[in-house]
Amino acid sequence: xxxxxxxENKLRGTGCFxxxxxxxxxxxxTGSYVYADVSVVRGEPIAHADATDTLTNPTVxxxxxxxxxxxxxxxxxxxxxxEITSLQEYVLVHTDAIQVVHFSRxxxxxxxxxxxxxxxxxxxxxxxxxxxxxxDVYADxxx
Length: 143
What we know:
The chain is of the alpha+beta class and 143 residues long. The protein is built from four helices and twelve strands, in the order H-E-E-E-E-E-E-E-H-H-E-E-E-E-E-H. The chain has helices at residues 3-11, 70-74, 76-81, 134-137; strands at 16-19, 23-26, 33-36, 38-42, 47-48, 51-55, 60-64, 89-93, 99-105, 111-117, 122-125, 130-133. It has a six-stranded mixed β-sheet with strand order 1-4-7-8-9-10. The chain has a four-stranded mixed β-sheet with strand order 3-2-6-5. It is globular. The mean pLDDT is 89.
């Protein structure tokens, strides 16, 4: 799967920055540190004052689910991510099927759930003003 590459290509020249390499993020309420598989920032990345290798303002976070991490990514980790006010979209990517779960923050702070299946499906990342066709990032799996 090539989520970081697909997002980087779509966002080139838009003022959005993609960090595909286990970026450490800090949550403001609990002060917890979590690692994202891919994070995207709209505008300038802001590092935490005490840790310059720690991002505080992701707009989109993508997690690739594995059997060992799926429950944590869907549960406690999502709880921690929701503390980050800049976070607008959370994407969970299945590895065993062409399937993506997408959560988007609404103006009232609630989150809307959408699910996409199959290589012809397209996920719209509204906060980034871009769309990603699942077939483009699941090149190794049949659609």
